[in-house]
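Write out the 3D structure for:
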Amino acid sequence: MILIIHISGKKIIEVKNTSGDTVNCNQSDLTCAFWDLAEKFPEEIIAWCEEKYCDDLNIVQWSQIFHHDRIMASFAIENKFFSDSIGYIDQLPFVNVNRKVLYATWQMSSDVGGSKGKTLLKFKSLFEGIKDFDFLLNSITKFGQQNGLFCYSAPGLVNRTSDNKPKATATSSQLFSFIYKYYNTIWLSVLFWCYLKYENKFPLKAFLQAFLEEKSFLQKIDLSAIGIQSKKIPETSDSLDVIIPTMGRSKYLLQVMEDLSLQGLLPKRVIVVEQNPDVNSLSELPELYSKTWPFEITHHFIHQTGACNARNIALKEVESDWIFFADDDIRFEPDLLERALTEMNRLGVSSINMNCKQKGEKTIFKKIKQWGSFGSGTSIVNSAFAKQCAFSSIYEHGYGEDADFGMQLRNLGCDIIYHPEIEILHLKAPMGGLREKRILAWEQEEPLPKPSPTLMAFALNYYNIKQIRGFKTSLFLKYYNKQSVKNPLTYAKSMRLRWKKSELWVEKSMKEE
């Protein structure tokens, strides 16, 4: 490791190696020294640390955090770059960081952090003109994360904790410039409006100056030459249980069972939760008992419908180290489970989202990367994390339980990785399924709550206040052209009423949960 000791991300105090010996550096400018050291020491972690935190470095944990070469991590002890105002235009999980666990985020701090020299060099040609160290760090990770760089807030970097919220150091001009560079241009106007409405500020100069920046939105970078081979020693076996909720899809479910029976790495147990609302009905799956299967089968036949309840029942039955959350209308190759677990060990991760496509559908995202979503029918998760979570009944018979479960995992320190090369075919069965169509109570309101109470519940649970305001603003803007009221004042009044209705339904649902 090569450690750059600095003051306030500006002045270099000293550069040291792991042994504590001084490393000669001819650069006085911090960003120039950063690139120079990456060139000289491509196989070393190029680390940075604010001078006053040097004695708090938790060096023994660094090898666990930087367990492969495509990781960049930092921790905001007292200072972060962007304020919560970034949430006005970004509601992805990477913004509202849980500082108590290893958490996937592109938001970096100059307080302490690091990345492999050769990995940093992949970004040099794009960003060597950036002279502000914090802006540079966040540019690398914002751009890199979508191209396969694994980015984290890592409290384990230091033996120091603080209950105080880190202070943001970026100016409004830096925020506007960053948004212009790395987001769709329309978000600049949304940010300006939110500053005006919610902060009573008129940052016209920052808004206009942002257009002078060079646009980096949608640019690509190839990190494939930086191989990933985690140095973590696996603490789990290959034992795996499969969870499959189903309703009225016996033909499709049995196809899934056949695919599971052909796996090179067989599941230990398959847990099927079959639902039928008719209390006088019989199971449609006698084959689960009449046929010999190469794994244990646990079959629940219940008359309460709903994906959340069904999966929670199955979760309680899990005994293996891994859980495959499977849909009842998918098909996959015989090496799916073996490849998935091999890749999870190679990447050193505890959750993987596989590439689920319909027939003829093309892969959109072609790189392994940190994932902002979660698929409860296409994922494999370490059961040590998954069994601490539950599918919330607030989302029952609606949508959003996947995203909610994913957030529970992240808040436990479980990163979710998307893998484009491990594919599942989604048959999109036309009948049955867990999405039993029913008229929900809130759907009988006039006017309808907006957003749906399930979306509102997710926002209230996981967004900070500025993300909620940004979500509200973008919703109002996007929905305007999809409805008939064209008077902006009348429309705004109507949407505020519908927003309030949604909040009230969420409050009611949370009391009943």
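Residues 441-512 form one domain.
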